[in-house]
Amino acid sequence: xxxxxxxxxxxxxxxxxxxxxxxxxxxxxxxxxxxxxxxxxxxxxxxxxxxxxxxxxxxxxxxxxxxxxxxxxxxxxxxxxxxxxxxxxxxxxxxxxxxxxxxxxxxxxxxxxxxxxxxxxxxxxxxxxxxxxxxxxxxxxxxxxxxxxxxxxxxxxxxxxxxxxxxxxxxxxxxxxxxxxxxxxxxxxxxxxxxxxxxxxxxxxxxxxxxxxxxxxxxxxxxxxxxxxxxxxxxxxxxxxxxxxxxxxxxxxxxxxxxxxxxxxxxxxxxxxxxxxxxxxxxxxxxxxxxxxxxxxxxxxxxxxxxxxxxxxxxxxxxxxxxxxxxxxxxxxxxxxxxxxxxxxxxxxxxxxxxxxxxxxxxxxxxxxxxxxxxxxxxxxxxxxxxxxxxxxxxxxxxxxxxxxxxxxxxxxxxxxxxxxxxxxxxxxxxxxxxxxxxxxxxxxxxxxxxxxxxxxxxxxxxxxxxxxxxxxxxxxxxxxxxxxxxxxxxxxxxxxxxxxxxxxxxxxxxxxxxxxxxxxxxxxxxxxxxxxxxxxxxxxxxxxxxxxxxxxxxxxxxxxxxxxxxxxxxxxxxxxxxxxxxxxxxxxxxxxxxxxxxxxxxxxxxxxxxxxxxxxxxxxxxxxxxxxxxxxxxxxxxxxxxxxxxxxxxxxxxxxxxxxxxxxxxxxxxxxxxxxxxxxxxxxxxxxxxxxxxxxxxxxxxxxxxxxxxxxxxxxxxxxxxxxxxxxxxxxxxxxxxxxxxxxxxx
Length: 748
What we know:
- By secondary structure, the chain is of the alpha/beta class.
- It has 31 helices and 16 strands.
- Strand 2 (98-102), helix 5 and strand 3 (124-127) form a beta-alpha-beta unit.
- It has a six-stranded parallel beta sheet with strand order 3-2-6-7-1-8, sandwiched between helices.
- It is globular.
- Mean pLDDT is 82; it is low at 1-34, 624-638 and 743-748.
- The protein is 46% helix and 9% strand.
């Protein structure tokens, strides 16, 4: 640092670095949150424009082994795609000689799109499985003979049959767990007979008796052989076997692919590493990119050891660290760094201290709630406020540890009239409305200038809107949320994609657009749908949003209760780190002290937040120990009991009714019908689906309780403060036998 420059304290206690500020404001293109179709580079030098010094070093180091340690939001995909493109555009790499490997079809599709834009469209970008399957199908007749066995895409049915043959009853959850164990065994190259010993050696907690699982595993393998089928793990195993046994085939592949790039290298399994070694042979033209602090898939057999041992294996390797975070504000980055500063273990020893390149933003918000429904309602209210302030719904995410947590947030967002989408649910290109829209676009592309819909319509975006209008789609969204709004948002995402495509490809028409859509469908590279994303932390890996809500952050959920060993707990910390680093600007972390209203407030905020959230002490300090011993303020004690039979209630619908679903109801049917009629009027006047006013369960609960004053009404689940203020007078009037708006029941 020059002598005349004094370091100043930046936001959140970070030391500002003048060279980084120079790069931040000196023409470096944002590494993330960019257009789906960036401007096309017209030369090799143009490929390097906008890269920071470390990214440029990655891009220009084309020979020998290269290891890139890339923190979250530092532009790793940008660095490696520009590396490949620079090599191709400068004539140092032949496109057909490069194989870029990543872990999801979406990531591979995005990489192919970027490479096409950069003038390196001939480069293969695939997942390990798709690259291996392609090679297996091509070489099978030569190496084995006959037809390639059929691919088993969903193995859970075969596992169920195997369990039945072994006379082992497996419920749905156990089926999923045993299937996961079989997958783990295969990627770690463990045969059925060795499974029990391998589990013991790995310190792994099996979901059932290991001998039982080994028996089911062996029977599952026999079923596949009997029916001439293979699963995804077999694709890797068989390809490895062919390359090991047939040196002529291995050399043929090595002649074609001479340069390899592997993204998310911290997630490779031993089997994938074995395949990569066979692809390479005795060469070292390999570039790997990863971050040990984002290793969150060890339960699938992934290990960061290959990344951490890379320089041991290749002592001459070039090491580049990407630490300039272009995604998140200094406040978010400070919290992310703080999480890792408390980490332990080998991965923690290689953690990267990120430096935000963005302007100062709002501090992360920490929120404590008495119970889970209150937490969900609070999050939904905050989401609604952000949308009202101009944050698009598609730029907001609610992330949780397990999928079972989604239901209460689905309900709360629906009650608040906020559209949402479940990540990991139905695939975008499999939605009926999307298929219908693409079919219409393909038909219009075939007819060319003979389609009267396109008379006098020149611009591609306008052509797309004109075609889709013939299917019933309108430019204005329907009121409210629900299925109709979800369908509209899906088609609207296609329209936005077409407009983005047109800006990046002047002169492109419907034919070129349909080709792009076909490629995206094959890669499952869906456009952004304008709805709040609900997703597990694992499913959120690789994604980012303007605003992120991390919910349910209690000990027992984060870290999850079955994380027993130190390494398992550390992986949970890394999972939370991944969640934090998904946020660009707004970050909220919340937890509930009990599961249900009226429950015992026995939960504690996640231990990972100690020393980070206001009022908490650093772990291991004397104040921290005292805080752990300090008694917590208790809320109302006891579970929520059915008011009819006295049974403890756990289901959301039962908690609303305050009784078991099958217990006799004392609901006033006439009152319920009057409430439904009133709701229909409100729904029509406000342009909202009925459930956004009150759900049927809430109306039933009101009709059963027949509250006479605001306090009684507010105790009913589903009647939050906002709805009490908005609808309370009307509802209490109806309960009192009056016309809504005829008087103020609170005066009675």
